[in-house]
Structures
1.
Amino acid sequence: MTSNTDSPRLTVKALAELFPMPAYEQLRVLHDQKYPKQQPQSFRTPYYQPSLAGIRDFHRGGNDSRLLTSAQNDLQSIGNPARRAHNLRVLEKFANSRLLRRRLQPLPNTRYSANVGSVEIRLSPDLQALENGELVVIYFNCRTAAITDEIANLTVEIGNWVLEQNEIGISHDHVEVVDLVAGNTHKRKKGRPSTIKTLKANARIIEALWPTV
């Protein structure tokens, strides 16, 4: 298998954010995807793994509020004050969200990917779970600013496309972006053909830019 720097590999979320960006911002996203271990920042998902693990444990434990309290206590051990505060903020937002009442049974995060040319697109959601016996795939917006409707829609549509390429039977509206900042959930009944067209066009650009990043 080739290394991450040999051929383009991007997450669904990164691609969704990349589409509307000007060229100089696209290069930054590509750099972050090509060298993911360099200079970790608070907008990256791994930064929020402690709080996301607490959310998964809460649902795995049957929505027991004591598990949220336990997760909040565990976050106190994070040495970096800013990271500790941000993760506590995420759990507090979750505790006041509608997702708290949903009965989700977390599943191991199965790795799915699909290719457009040499560009590998990876589905890396924050939660895969069963809800009423059906698969749901959830991304959380953990940042301090609300996600835009367009980026959320692109995330849902590209995520669904990757699942379709893997022949995973899932309702289109079961791929969701939960915005913990705005307190709402983004999903779509169906995708837009223009999104996949743009995806393929951007893949050609990424292929050309990748060696220069």
2.
Amino acid sequence: MGLDVGGFAQKPNWPRLGPTLVIASSLILAIRTARWPVSEAGTHSTPELDREIAYAVRLAGMVLSVLVAHHESFFPQRKEPWFVPNDDDIPH
């Protein structure tokens, strides 16, 4: 016995939204730090840069959340099946 598929619902493909969040965060960080002087420390992190990275990720996450809530069709979609209940699923 298997479940009967009643149809499909279009839902955002959450695993594919990860790269979108990374790109958006990187763009925000690049814009906010574009005028910073070149660090003599090279690749060492500073507390100020750490705060900027955390802020960029938080801001990108908030924007992505609002966009998905109000305009989910903008993002990659996947078909998610919904199932028809059978006799075993209905309480008597």
3.
Amino acid sequence: MPLSPVMQIGLAFVVAIVLFIFLQVLPSTRLNYKAPLVNGFITTRANMILRLLASTLALFGPFFIIFIDLMTLDEALTLLLLCPIVFGLLLNPELTLSSNARLVITKSLISHTATLHLREPYQDFDRKTYQELLQLVTLLPQYGIEHIMLKSPMFYHASGELRSMVMLEKGLNKHSARLTHSPARRLDCLLGKISMLVSTSKQKKSKRHHISLFRWHQILINL
């Protein structure tokens, strides 16, 4: 006895969700991942596009099978192939120096500026983070990076006073890099602000009242 259209759609929905969850469990296909910097930006972006293609096929493939008679080949290719590729070119993959790195690196497709952010929303910008930043200053030019941008509310003391940049400037001078910095615009870092608002980090309770989520500072390092 053939299934009714409603039952077919319900079955397709269940299969799609199961397939999608299965892909997110596997390290090689999950969408939420951070690649090692040694892979490079081009290889990492290509890898992200493949992951997007796999997830798109998992989510929409079962429905395509049901409605195959209602869709043209061009429509199916646009949905299952072209859309993930376009999103993969627009989205920025995340890279790190190592599995326990304190900084995350992103870069848009045609930019020569790498944007860094702390791995955890309420993470301290401590000595290890500072040392990792200097390490990236020496490594990123090998990947075509000319500038490093970092925006964070952590550059301010709880009193609202800007933290000293003297030690950072001295460290950068040793690597022939130059630092400029200024307050970030109010509409900048929207994703970062949202991430800090919804964070469930254990550090949030102790630090939330010492950080202004709406006052961020940005530093630009010219390599």
